[in-house]
Amino acid sequence: MTWEFGYRLRHTARTSLVLWAVLALALALVCAPAVRWLDAETDWSVFRYTPDGARAVLGSFVSSTLTFIVFVLSATLIVVQLASGQLTPRIIALVLTTPGVKVALSALTFTYAYTLAALGRVEDRVPHLHVSIAVFLNLVCIIVFFRFVQQLSNGLRPASVLQLVADRTERVIERVYPVRYDPEQPEVPPNEALPSSARVVEFSGRAGVLVAFGAASLLRLAREAGAAIELIPQVGDSVARGDPLFRISGATREIPYAALRGCVAVGTERTLEQDPRFGFRILVDIGNKALSPAINDPTTAVLVLDQLDNLLLHLGQHRLDEGQVRDRDGKLRVVYGTPDWPDFVALAVTEIRHYGQGSLQVTRRLRAMLEHLIAALPEERRPPLRAELALLGSSVGRSFQDEEDRKRAAVADYQGIGGSDS
């Protein structure tokens, strides 16, 4: 099994609604015979239904549970459509993989299959334990359904969507950059590169986006071949047939293309697993859309800046990846492109500063964010922030003709407009 195959299995297990529903259905088909056997052995009961009463109750539950399943799926699709239209289409995958949707769908599917199995066993003798468990399961599903509706209504709010994206991005930062930043050991750019004569391996698959790669698998291939391998595109880059994918230097034996290709995953769109920049991209896109003339919602842009402020502060406290993997002997084996701190700062600030340059609310909140990060982060993190603050000052001077507006725009305000000028 290649690294790519394992990655896709893990990704499917985390994101697929179909897989959860199938597992719930299979579990119900296993539990139903087990409960029937226990009922025959013990004759336990809670509700002493007659055969006709049991059929009526279970038949009603089967119909209502199927209706709940249809509502959950329909409501989820509506939320996806509304969220993608109002905010950004890049959050569709996040909405579909929220635990609330998977738990509700799994619980309803399990209960529907189990109740149907119990209904089919009601004959002259009522399996009381079987029927009683089915009744309790349906009562629990009613609560699960109400909980799902409440979460769905709360999830429609921009603040909830932004918090969801920020939480996912923060977890990715912790996973991709697990080491805390130490000012005594500043980050240094890679000082080793593969020679220009290295052999280039071209991509021959279907065009898409590099969503993840297995550094440990590439290290194993490079060590076995006595080579150094460079992954040319970065995670999140688009790759097409014929594009350079790897460069290999110093190999003592041939590395099969299939083995190299099995170390990278190419998909139709970016994911968050190894790409914290994608989380920033989603937030910035929501802010850009809110600042468009057609929508003109600077308050949502301020909410975006709240989350970007927290994420940049969290990211700045971690040591970023230097894009090099060495073996146990300290020899360079794998090289790959990776973003640095100025890349993240530019991604989080530049476009919102550009699209929000005529908004007092956005410029004041953006200034508060930059000043806060300059004060809170180590000195090595501050130059890109100071550069963005200087650009913000220039933008304010061009955007506001009145002196009083320029003075107001030069004030840092965490609420945009409404906080104290002091």
UniProtKB/TrEMBL annotation:
Keyword field: Membrane, Transmembrane, Transmembrane helix
Listed name of the protein = DUF2254 domain-containing protein
Source domain of life is: Bacteria
User: InterPro entries per the record?
Assistant: DUF2254_membrane
Any Pfam family the entry gives = DUF2254
Where are the membrane-spanning stretches? 17-38, 58-80, 92-117, 129-149
Source organism per UniProt: Gemmata palustris
